[in-house]
């Protein structure tokens, strides 16, 4: 049938074609018209299925379709047998094929935590974690990283990225400090540019656009003593001043989803906070996208293992739209259906959730393009992306001390490199790398910091490496000790008892110092470290944070190929005992928020 044409001015303007088939399948119809039409055709089972997200390891494609699941996810480290772009695309497309083969053909949406590149997949470009990107103070760079990440994600299949974390980490003992851009809301506000990189100016506007997630709403970084999933015992005024503004910015940027925090606010789990989710996020801030729970998070509402019908009712009625119930989808579906049929969850609430979920799927273009655009795989781990990552590493380095020992001479130098983090790409990548917790060792392709020091050495320069510093003597002109933390994620990174250098690092630095050679210390860590006691013995100090796969970017700064511009977005405490210490709190930090040196040319 010819598309209807209207005479408008001198031109004929095509209007929504009266294409055959249901309105919701017409890409020229408005999103709201498509949502309304589809909603009318959906049963209660269809609608409850759309609100349910399961882990890929828990359901086959056919089981997912039979449950009418709206979404699948890969939890950290949940990868297909072939952890390659093709292996991922085949896996994601197999769920999609089953979904679009159902009577209504509603596509599923697949979510991953690509929080510093597409970090689940071997060979992806691994960018610095947010703590370093915050120090780079370059929102445009972060937007480009978002775009690069989206291309690498979309080319492997997933259409949803549970990123960026817009947490404002207020206590460095928190295991997720490195997922924060900084201790001030302005850091997360500025770097919410990641959303525009991931989604585009408008969701679905171009190939590779993926649904972004502002997380974790709200106050995850403000818990007492930095306890992960703890209680944010601040006033509503402080919550609105410190933790809410990044979500306002994310909404202004059109973020399509918001993830609720595990933490509590004033003793009540966020997943049961109707006032903050429905009244504040959805009504006051006018968030139109979908709200998703965190992983099994509704289980925690009553403080007991597993979830109950009451916890399902409380969290749905609080305003959460989609539920990450990785291994318990059938149970969730059964409980919610019973709650609706008993009249304890309204059909209007179910419809509100579905409108939000379906609108994102329509905006993403999933109904028109349900399968992976494999042409994007040419960007995966590309040279261009790795160069972008290396630039981000350069800009994230913060020079904290320099007694004239930096920059290192590239020629006619004799450099000794030591430390457990000098030649360990797993340690420099940190958590959320291939697995949830990350791991030490040569686990991903890229360059270590030592690789960079070696490749940057010029004529007449030798570079010697020994992890413990064995072999150092007075014939060396300078020593570089790359020390710090080994990978962790979430609560496993909580450090309630302090965060100083470990015994190995202290021994390595002492050995280097005993030779009389000047020592540059480079910290690879997910937080500022408690180093004040050792600082007088450091001739130079650089915070490298968690640089990711392109460690050579650290060497670019050590050699002065890039004059450091990084500035602290976390007050560096005089000791762990000083925590929390934040800009404007009147406490005197060892190095204040905004501190960072440059080389005098
Ligand atoms: C995790 C994290 C969240 C992540 C989700 C899915 O527990 O809290 O940031 O997006 O589960 O992996």
Outline the fold blueprint.
Layout: E1 5-8, E2 11-14, H1 31-41, H2 44-50, E3 52-55, H3 61-66, E4 71-73, H4 85-100, E5 109-112, H5 130-136, H6 139-154, E6 160-161, H7 185-191, H8 193-199, E7 213-217, E8 231-232, H9 236-243, H10 245-252, E9 257-260, E10 264-265, E11 268-269, H11 274-284, E12 290-292, H12 309-318, E13 323-324, H13 329-341, H14 347-364, H15 383-396, E14 398-402, E15 414-418, H16 425-429, H17 449-456, E16 462-465, E17 478-484, H18 503-514, E18 519-524, E19 540-543, H19 552-558
Parallel strand pairs: 3-4, 3-13, 4-5, 5-6, 7-9, 8-10, 9-12, 15-16, 15-17, 17-18, 18-19
Antiparallel strand pairs: 1-2, 10-11, 14-19
Helix pairs in contact: 1-14, 2-14, 5-15, 6-8, 6-15, 7-10, 11-12, 12-13, 15-19, 17-19
This protein binds alpha-D-glucopyranose.
Alpha-D-glucopyranose (GLC) binds next to loops.
């Amino acid at each position: 049938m010819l598309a209807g044409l209207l005479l408008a001015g001198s031109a004929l303007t095509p209007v929504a074609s009266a294409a055959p088939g249901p309105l919701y399948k017409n890409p020229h119809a408005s999103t709201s018209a498509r949502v309304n039409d589809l909603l009318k055709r959906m049963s209660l089972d269809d609608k409850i299925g759309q609100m349910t997200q399961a882990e890929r390891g828990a359901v086959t494609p056919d089981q997912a379709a039979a449950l009418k699941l709206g979404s699948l996810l890969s939890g950290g480290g949940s990868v297909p047998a072939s952890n390659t772009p093709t292996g991922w695309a085949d896996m994601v497309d197999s769920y999609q094929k089953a979904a679009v083969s159902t009577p209504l053909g509603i596509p599923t949406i697949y979510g991953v935590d690509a929080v510093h590149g597409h970090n689940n997949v071997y060979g992806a470009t691994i960018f610095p974690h947010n703590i370093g990107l915050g120090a780079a103070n370059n929102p445009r760079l972060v937007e480009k990283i978002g775009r690069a990440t989206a291309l690498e994600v979309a080319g492997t299949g997933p259409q949803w990225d549970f990123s960026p974390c817009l947490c404002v980490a207020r206590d460095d003992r928190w295991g997720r400090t490195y997922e924060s851009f900084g201790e001030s809301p302005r850091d997360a506000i500025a770097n919410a540019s990641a959303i525009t990189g991931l989604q585009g100016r408008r969701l679905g506007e171009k190939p590779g656009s993926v649904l972004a997630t502002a997380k974790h709403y709200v106050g995850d970084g403000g818990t007492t003593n930095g306890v992960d999933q703890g209680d944010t015992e601040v006033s509503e005024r402080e919550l609105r001043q410190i933790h809410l503004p990044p979500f306002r910015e994310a909404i202004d940027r059109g973020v399509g989803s918001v993830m609720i925090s595990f933490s509590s606010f004033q003793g009540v789990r966020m997943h049961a906070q109707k006032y903050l989710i429905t009244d504040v996020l959805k009504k006051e801030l006018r968030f139109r996208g979908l709200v998703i729970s965190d992983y099994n998070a509704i289980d925690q509402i009553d403080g007991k293992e597993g979830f109950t019908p009451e916890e399902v009712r409380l969290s749905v009625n609080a305003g959460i739209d989609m539920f990450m119930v990785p291994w318990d989808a059938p149970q969730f579906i059964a409980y919610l259906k019973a709650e609706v049929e008993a009249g304890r969850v309204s059909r209007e609430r179910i419809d509100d959730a579905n409108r939000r979920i379906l609108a994102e799927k329509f905006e993403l273009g999933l109904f028109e393009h349900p399968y992976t655009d494999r042409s994007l795989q040419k960007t995966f781990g590309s040279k261009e992306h790795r160069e972008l990552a290396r630039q981000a590493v350069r800009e994230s380095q913060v020079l904290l001390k320099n007694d004239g020992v930096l920059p290192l001479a590239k020629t006619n130098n004799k450099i000794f490199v030591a430390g457990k983090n000098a030649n360990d790409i797993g340690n420099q990548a940190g958590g959320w790398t291939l697995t949830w917790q990350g791991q030490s060792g040569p686990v991903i392709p890229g360059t270590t910091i030592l690789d960079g020091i070696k490749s940057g050495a010029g004529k007449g320069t030798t570079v010697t490496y020994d992890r413990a510093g064995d072999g150092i003597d007075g014939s060396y002109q300078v020593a570089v000790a790359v020390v710090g933390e080994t990978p962790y994620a979430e609560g496993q990174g909580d450090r309630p008892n302090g965060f100083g250098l470990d015994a190995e690092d202290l021994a390595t630095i002492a050995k280097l110092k005993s030779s009389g050679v000047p020592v540059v210390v480079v910290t690879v860590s997910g937080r500022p470290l408690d180093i004040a006691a050792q600082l007088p013995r450091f001739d130079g100090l650089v915070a490298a944070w968690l640089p990711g796969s392109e460690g050579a970017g650290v060497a670019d700064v050590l050699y002065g190929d890039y004059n450091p511009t990084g500035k602290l977005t976390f007050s560096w405490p005089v000791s762990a005992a000083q925590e929390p210490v934040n800009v404007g709190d009147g406490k005197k930090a060892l190095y204040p928020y905004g501190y960072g040196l440059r080389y005098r040319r």
